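User: Can you write out an input/output pair for a complex, sequences first and structure second?

Assistant: Here is one pair. Inputs:
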Amino acid sequence: MDPRVLIIIPAFNEEITIQWVVSELRRECPAYDLLVVNDASTDRTSHFARSTGCACVIDLPVNLGIGGAVQTGLKYASKYAYHCAVQFDADGQHRPEDVFKLVDMVLSDECDVAIGSRFVGDSRLHGTDLFRRMGIRFFEFLSIFLIKKRIRDHTSGFRAFSKTTIDFIMHEYPVDYPEPEIVVLLARNRFRIREIFTQMYSRQGGVSSIPLVKGPYYMFKVMVAMLVASLRPKEF
Amino acid sequence: MGRIQILSIIASLVIFSVVFNLVRRRRLKTEYSLIWLSVSIVFIIFSFWRQGIDKLASLLGIAYPPSVLYIILLIGIILILIEFSIIISKQAEKIKILVQEIGLLKLELEQKIEKLKPTHEQDPKEDPDKGKE
């Protein structure tokens, strides 16, 4: 039996790019199922996603935040027993052809979580400003300290999860800025995490989930979350 | 009995009865009223038992006995606020689970309806632009 793979596309007000992202993904990976989780967008994201006719669309009635949207997708993946779930940003910054890189690593059991990283194997810090780079660097050192593992791109929203991982994190997923915390949580519970270089396009549309004014809040929240996650009792 | 003592007895009794009445009329859930009731009972005790404050102050090594009152008040308020934060967190988690479940069910329902539709009939879903004129 062929392994079943679900691509989860969390989308909040991405009407400019969603159609392009969905149809590109469908063209690149015709064998994978696509799921758009529309996080109560106020624009026509849902309409454009549906108009492509090649993705299932979940319309959340209330805005939950990126984490809540991804978690919805993970619950769907678990419910329909997918072997692998990929998180793919709706703003078009990831390349659809890179999906295979991540999925192959998970399906060949090289790792439980594959993270598409901007920095691995390439020193260019691409499409990020100084503050963001500093933040990412800081998380890198924090993760060395907390989980004895060097993760270069903690903020990457391009990830593939194995079946066991899906079943583990679908119960507990932070609502806002979830990425670094999830890495710590998974590493702490002995899931194997691997990073792989993926090219990023600069943002095609929409705005970052981390506007500069929220920077300090973001840093503080994520720092606390990573610390707490590293001190939680192991569940495995 | 000094005037201030009568005043504090009345005040703490009023707080207690207000909370109790809210619970009685189901405006306040019993489980959330417990901390309010306990704090107001502590206040009632200390407004009747004047030496209690002095005794507690000397026990804790506090030179100025009335400040014991502030400490009790402060501890009570902090406990209540922490309890609120816990309740809010629990509710946020529950709301999130419900919203996700609704989303998943909506999709499932759409798919079931789609399957039930006879194949020769064209999708009658109206265009969102239509009917706007």
